[in-house]
Amino acid sequence: MNILKEKLVILAVVLGFTLALASLSSAAEPKASGLPGMMSWSAFDVGSRGYVQGAAISNALTKKYGTKVRILPSGTSVGRLMPIKTGAANYGLLADETYFAAEAVYEFAFPNWGPQDLRVLLAHPAPIGLAATAKSGIRTLQDCKGKKIGWIPGASTNNVKTEAFLAFAGLTWKDVQRVDLPSYAAAGKGLIEGKIDAISYGITAPLMYELEASPQGIFWVEFPASDAEGWKRLRQYTPWLSPGKCDLGPGLKKGQPKEIPSYTYPQLVCYAKQDANEVYALVKGFDETFDMYKDADPEMPEWALSRSGRTPAGAPFHEGAIRYLKEKGIWTAQSDQWNKKFLERLKKVQGAWKIAMQEATAKGMSEKDFTEFWLKKRGEITD
C-alpha cells in the first residue's frame, strides 16, 4: 500500500469515527423540541395493544421531531421494569405492574426489588370487565357465588382484578369454584369451551369476539358507580380502578353503555429522577402529535390529554408532566390532592421497606420468609 492510499484509509477511519461520535452525541442531546434524538421504551409483547399503540405514537414523534424510539417488548412485569431500572430504557408503556412495583407487592416483594420510585407521565384509560358466558346465568356480581371463576397462576395483574371484582359483591375465592388456567389466552378459550363461567378480561380482546360468536355467548357484568360500598371493597385490592362506562366491544351496543371499570393501560412511566424538562417535552410531544396517531387503534383517542392526563394512576405523576398538564388547564386541585396523598403513601412504604430489610438482614432471613415478613409489615402501614 503506497503512502497516498495509507493516508486515504486513515482519513476515512478518522472521518467515520468522527461521524459516529457526532451521531451518538446528536442522539443524546436534546433537540429543539426538548426531546433526545433517540429513546427506548419497554412495552408488552409484539401484537399487544400497548405495543401497537407505542409503535404508532413513536412513529408520529419521529415524523414530527426526528426523535427515534426503540421499543423493547416483554411478556412479563419484571421484564418490562428491568430495562427502565437498569437504564436500558428511558420509559415504559406499563399496566398494573406500575402499582405493584411502587408498592413492592407480588413480583416486586423480594429483596432485589422493593418499592420502586416510579412516576407516571400519562395514564391511558381503558375498560376492564368481568367477562361471563351468557350460558352461566351470571347477570350480577352476586351471581358469581358457586360459579367457576378463572385463576391464572403467576398472572398477578389478572388475578387481583378478578379478586377485586368478587370483593365488590362481598365475595371471596371461598365463595366460588376456582379453576386454574395456564395463561391469559387459555382463560379466554376456557370461557369459549365452558370450562369457566367468568374471569376478568380486556373488553376488546380478540378472544372476546370469539366468545360472543360461540354457543356460550358473552355477558359483561356491571359495576354501578352508585354502589359506594362495593367500590370501597374493590379498591382495597385495586385502588387504581375507577368507575367507567363502555359501549365498544363484543356483547356491547353503541349508545347503550354499561358501567364497567376503567383502569390505566398503557401508562407511560419512568423513574422520579428522570429529567423534568425532558418529561415535559415528551408529554407535549404526545399532545402535539395526537392527530397523527389518534386513528391507529380503536382505543387511541383515549390518549387525548383530557383523558390520559387525569388521576388515578399506578404511581404519582411526574413533576414535568404536571407542569405541562397545568399549562393546558387539565391538572386540577383534586388531581394535586390525589398526587400528594400517593407521594406521602410511597414515602411510608419506602421507609417501612428500609426497616424491614435491616431487620431481615440482622436475622439472616431467607428470601421466602422475607417476602411474607415484608407483606405483613406493609399491611401495618396506615395512610
- Count of individual beta strands: 11
The run of helices and strands is HEHEHEHEEHEHEHEHEEEHHHHHH
Helix content: 40-55%
* N-to-C CA distance: 76 Å
- The helix/strand class is alpha/beta
Shape: globular
Overall pLDDT score: 90
Strand content: 15-25%
Number of helices: 14
The value of Rg in angstroms is: 23 Å
Query: What's the main sheet like?
Result: 7 strands, mixed
Give an overview of the whole structure.
Helix 5 runs antiparallel to helix 8, helix 6 packs parallel to helix 7 and helix 13 crosses helix 14. Strand 1, helix 2 and strand 2 form a beta-alpha-beta unit. It is built from 14 helices and eleven strands. It is an alpha/beta fold. The longest helix has 31 residues. The strands form three sheets. Strands 1, 2, 3, 4, 7, 8 and 11 form a seven-stranded mixed β-sheet that branches. Strands 5-6 form a two-stranded parallel ribbon. It has a two-stranded antiparallel ribbon with strand order 9-10. The N terminus is likely disordered. The N and C termini lie far apart (76 Å).
What's the gist of this structure?
The protein has 14 helices and eleven strands.
Primary descriptors:
single chain, alpha/beta, 7-stranded mixed sheet, two-stranded parallel ribbon, 11 strands, 16% strand
List the helices and strands and how they pair.
Blueprint: H1 3-28, E1 38-43, H2 49-65, E2 68-73, H3 77-86, E3 91-94, H4 97-103, E4 118-133, E5 148-151, H5 156-168, E6 177-180, H6 184-192, E7 198-202, H7 206-213, E8 218-220, H8 228-235, E9 245-246, E10 258-259, E11 262-271, H9 276-288, H10 290-293, H11 305-308, H12 319-327, H13 333-363, H14 367-379
Parallel strand pairs: 1-2, 1-3, 5-6
Antiparallel strand pairs: 3-11, 4-7, 4-8, 4-11, 9-10
Helix pairs in contact: 5-8, 6-7, 9-12, 13-14
